[in-house]
Amino acid sequence: MREALENQLDEVNSDLVEMTRLVGHAISAATQALLEDDLSLAEQVIDGDGAINTLNMDVEERCLRIAALQAPVATDLRAVMSGIRMATSLERMGDLAVHIAKQVRLRYPNPPIPVELRETFGEMGAAASRIVDETGTVIASRNTDLADKIKVYDDELDRLHRELFTAVLSSTWGHGVEAAIDVTLLSRFYERFGDHAVTVARRVVHIVTGEPYSK
Amino acid sequence: MREALENQLDEVNSDLVEMTRLVGHAISAATQALLEDDLSLAEQVIDGDGAINTLNMDVEERCLRIAALQAPVATDLRAVMSGIRMATSLERMGDLAVHIAKQVRLRYPNPPIPVELRETFGEMGAAASRIVDETGTVIASRNTDLADKIKVYDDELDRLHRELFTAVLSSTWGHGVEAAIDVTLLSRFYERFGDHAVTVARRVVHIVTGEPYSK
Could you tell me the pTM of the whole model? Predict the structure, then answer.
């Protein structure tokens, strides 16, 4: 019984780690599509989202089965309940990568962002890729010390988000209202991506320590 | 045992309905603060969010306890798992009302939106208030026919969102880049609010019918 429960919880964890891997691919590809105005890569990100959604439902079904058949308690029960919440957050991170890719498609063949902002968006993309990699490691290892590193990347995303805000509002902004809105929304997608990673990391801490999570 | 389980599930449902009531107050007050540039009302919305977050954690704890002690199956188990997901969505709707209120506070004493857009934002606020009222009714009654009405209000929010986009991008827009970004973000907060209501309604249909939900 105990062994069966552990195997099933491992499967949930494997699904969650696999979700971080797919979401990592999605955000890297979405960033590359954004920086290189690559329509076919953007389409790949959009088409690939189905696999992330399927894993989300798979996690929920596995958790349902564990709860029904194994009557888990304490850490195990927290893992089951948090599994569902973490899958929701990871699925949403996949959606945000899709939002970025759709913006590339919407503006194609025009470049989705002004050339001089590519570097900043490149940094956002790199921070987002690192944050989701780290999230996968935190889930796999349940190493709560690593969860703090996620906050560092999230702070970096927040800083870059403010930097882009400043750019579009500066008196030297020469790209008009539509481009300003595009940049703001794209920047926000990356910033929200980081917030969800923080939520997932906090959930891992909650499973391990039983400490109440702040949302 | 059966009676205890039913009582506990009723308590989860009551919490969820109470969340819709608080979120309904929050979005109505946030809209009024936005239309009337009312700082103190905006502060009330921001301060009131803690109660919604507390209910979210309360729902999760109740669901944990039910899963551990009652070993629910079928519809009951779906209700337990979906309870957690619905609470997440409702909590996020509360956050979106807070985002609107914070925008009012950020721009105060300047009006947060141009006067000529007040009517459209008033319509968005009205649709958002109706959608969350209806969501509460769907949760309380588990009447899946009503879930379709939620989609109608959500379509209305999407339409108004597009209308505001068109306004800020028109050649007659005379309020500059910052106001355009403010309007776009505020409009997006209402549009996302509607999306979450649709997610909650789909969850109720899933509980009742067992049909797979699309995210």
Answer: 0.91
